[in-house]
Amino acid sequence: MIKGLLKSIPLLRLFVLKFRRFIFFIKVHLYNTIACVYHSFEKKRVKKKVSSGKQINVFFLVLDKSVWKTDLIFQEMVKDSRYNPCIVVIPRINALNVLDHAEDNYNYFKGKGYQTKSLYSNGQWQRLETIGTIDMIFFSNPHQLSLPQYLISPLYKKLTCYVPYFEQIDTNYDGHFNGLTVNLCWKVFQINDIHKNIALRYAFNRGRNIDVVGYPATESLYSSDGINVSPWKKSELKKIIIAPHHSIASSTPLSNATFLETAETLQTLPRLFENSVCFAFKPHPLLKEKLYKHPEWGVEKTNGYWEYWSTQENTQFEDAGYIDLFKTSDAMIHDCSSFIIEYLYVKKPCLYLNSKIRDGLNEYGKIGYDAITKAKNNEDIIKFVESLVNETAPLPKYSSEVNLIPKESPTKKIISILNAELDGGK
After folding, report:
1. Strand-pair partners of 86
2. What is the DSSP letter of 159?
3. What is the CA radius of gyration of the chain?
4. Per-residue pLDDT tens digits for 123-178
5. Are 240 and 279 in contact (CB under 8 A)?
6. Residue 274 and residue 56: Cα distance in Å, rounded?
7. N or C: at which end does the chain have fewer Cβ atoms within 10 angstroms?
8. 162 phi, psi to nearest 5 deg
9. Residues 277, 275: Cα–Cα separation, whole Å
10. Residues 6 or more apart from 306 whose CB is under 8 A from it?
11. pLDDT tens digit string along 296-348?
């Protein structure tokens, strides 16, 4: 009833939105004032711990293996005697099966040989403190997608850190730069000055907690590290990644997904190019869940579509890390937002499936979007694959003044900042 009333009276709705924003503004400033005091005490406590030769417990809260963007930071901490890093699997409450999803994440990181813990025990999710003293926390996602005890509100007094889980290329500034997590974290490690300037203008804390370091998630894409084992099923063929986004039916502000319009054409590609191209289907993890609820798709049709990509001779399904996949691919077809920038690092042909979102991108997003090929219809998808097979597909083009690669390693810069804060840079 109240929602209906708000919709019918625009001025009342506007008043309520502004009132909520004002309350949020007060909350951020109040919490920040309290956090500054606690952060000071926590830094002293942790410094004392380091000086006495004890390790700092660093808990990486992980919701989903597919958006794990701090791998290099974790690895660097493993090598540094100051730190005791640990993957802590927490529930993503909007997963189709929360426990199965958490177990899958747990097994993935355990399989990588990482110290990994699950907070699910005795039939319920335990508090973070049950696995050890909290010295530092890395959030992997800033949104309210887990249980309350794993969100910023009960943890903001701790030394909390956040590395963006995507490249933040659109103009949803409130969503990306003014949420509770990014406002209250002790440290937010941002990608570049474009992002910091956005925060200075739109974040209620005016970006006071931001350090510009580059993006550790993409560091491996431009490093010279080799690939030990090819992730491709048929590496002798041309290799194309297909990565559809989840924002179908205008479910996000940018609404960049085209899956409902392109799914059928995408599914024809393995048959059309069965002797020349291997396709890796890498959908956003939320797409399947949204399709289950879509009136024209549902569970059976969605499962059948997913199974198709797992069972053809020249197809494979991907749902985890993508660094090796990107580096060994020949091209990508997608409508994700973050990949607009991330795939630029490998300097290979890319077809973007939505030609109408430029106005919804920020300055950083437009650099990537303008550099790559856009499809205006389904025929353009087939033509792009043909051009790759014929080796005439265009490479990304952007200004020589644009330097995506930072001078210093983002990972090493983050570790250096943390060391300087916690042990005087010793």
Report:
1. 59
2. -
3. 22
4. 999 999 999 999 999 999 999 999 999 999 999 999 999 999 999 999 999 999 99
5. yes
6. 52
7. N
8. -145, 130
9. 6
10. 281, 283, 288, 317
11. 999 999 999 999 999 999 999 999 889 999 999 999 999 999 999 999 999 99
